[in-house]
Specification:
The complex is a heterodimer of chains A (298) and B (302). By secondary structure, chain A is mainly alpha-helical. Chain A is 73% helix and 0% strand. Chain A has helices spanning 2-7, 19-53, 59-63, 80-112, 116-129, 133-148, 152-177, 180-187, 193-221, 225-228, 249-257, 262-293. In chain A, helix 4 runs antiparallel to helix 5, helix 4 (80-112) packs parallel to helix 7 and helix 4 (80-112) packs across helix 11. The model of chain A has no long low-confidence stretch (mean pLDDT 89). The chains are: A mainly alpha (298), B alpha/beta (302).
Amino acid sequence: MAAVTAETRQPDLGEPKGWRRTKNRVMTALMIIAFVLVLIPLGFVLFTVIAKGASVISWQFLTGSPIPPIVLPADVGGMWPAVLGTIEITALATVMAVPLGILGAIYLNEYGGRNWLAALIGFMSDVMTGVPSVVMGLFIFSIWVLHFGFSGLAGAFALACLMLPIVIRSSYEMLRLVPDSLREGSYALGATKARVTATVVLPAAIGGIVSGALLAVARAAGETAPLLFTILTVTTANPNVFSGANTSLPSQIFSNANQPYPGAQDRGWGAALTLIAICFILMIVARLVTARFSRYSR
Amino acid sequence: MEQPEQETVTNLQRPETATQEVPLPEPAGLRRPELQQDITPGEHVFETDKISIYYDSFRAVTDVSLTVYQNEITAFIGPSGCGKTTVLRTLNRMNDLVPGARVEGDVRYRGAALYGPGVSAIAVRRRIGMVFQKPNPFPKSIYDNVAYGPRINGIHKKHELDEIVERSLRRAALWDEVKDRLSKSGLGLSGGQAQRLCIARTLAVEPDVVLMDEPCSALDPIATGRIEDLMHEIKSRYTIVIVTHNMQQATRVSDRTAFYSVLRDEKSDTRTGVLVEYGRTQQIFEDPQDSRTQAYVTGRMG
């Protein structure tokens, strides 16, 4: 056998040689370097926040109340008012922005078609993405806070304004990826447009839509600027999100971290770690939920 | 707006009586005498009278007049770009989904004007199902794929759905292969199985007509054979119109064949599909009347 294969001329199936191979390796190396470069800041941020914040975190830090004056050390009082404020304000903003954003994306992709109104809304939504968050805060301050006072609701309005264009854009892109053949399959069975959208298009796109919504939620949870004008920053827990000044983790990070007192700085790091942990837990929960929704898409 | 739509829906839901209710002077003129001599035609399911189909200002197909008979398999053949699929998609108003598409001329389904005022495309498609070129199972379980149509028609009782799912999958000759994994994803099936699942899904709504747009073009010969057998089996219950690129397939499965070709306008360099010849399959392939048909079926063109 070996003699036969040795005699016959074999095609060259080896790796390409010369410049082609070099180019391949250079590009592969560049991509790995780029990936590592992206990881470096992420790694440093996580490392620093955990290194400086982990020692502060305790059950009392997470659930204690009120937030003590900045001159006191970090083991007095706790961050509960800010944790509660962040959760309730972000949740309220999510409830406002995510359904509205998904419905907007459905209009743009499924109903708008070549309509001028859809084109205008899509353009305006993109413009809205570029509005700085502090301007969003000022906007809500002038149309809501000046008339009704500071409240978690006002903060949620500002955050929802920030989230809305992100949710619209990401959901729109996901809906666009749903192949028309699926829609046609449903239409061919006599489904109405609403039925096609609700039972075929949305389930097929749900994974990506949830990912996009999560990015928006995480972004909103970390926003400081729009909250400064809308919720004020108080030190006691306010379970009523609809009225009265409130507080949040980003606001507390801001007001504690720029103080010279060691206790305040520790509280800042602890609040930062808490915020990251909350977003992380949220991501995992959403992934599990999405996996359940899209279990048939493989 | 409400009232006329209601009327048409009821009209379309009772096809047996629709022909009696709607006065029909046209059919006699549309019948081709030479066809009536050698076979006994069933009821007229579709009648088109010199229809043209446009995408915006582009005329894709023109001058299509044909009659599709009940419980027969009608094949559309012809070279690429001749408008076979466009005509097929006109028959269940699937082209409504394409922005800018419109039909000129009279399309009748069992006597009712398919593009008449107040006709609901939804009601049309519930009676006239479609199987596509590429198998397109929904990203749902096999069971939910088949139960999708009945569910949108308001059937939600578990035992009824179970019965429909089993019956449809049996008719599509898929039941034995999937009965143990009905809760698995429909996307996990092979190409041939997926296409039979799509056929089962279409049969589950008990359509009157099944339109098939090159249903076997993505399948191997064994899967193709299965689907052709299947078409013969379900023919007694349904009327089938199939677009195919495969002339052997047309001769194997169809009772009648429509040959389409492309007319090229030299001045504007536009191509328009036309119906060249329509008749019994045997006649089209063995004794074509038009030289273009002859060239195509003998393999000298297209």
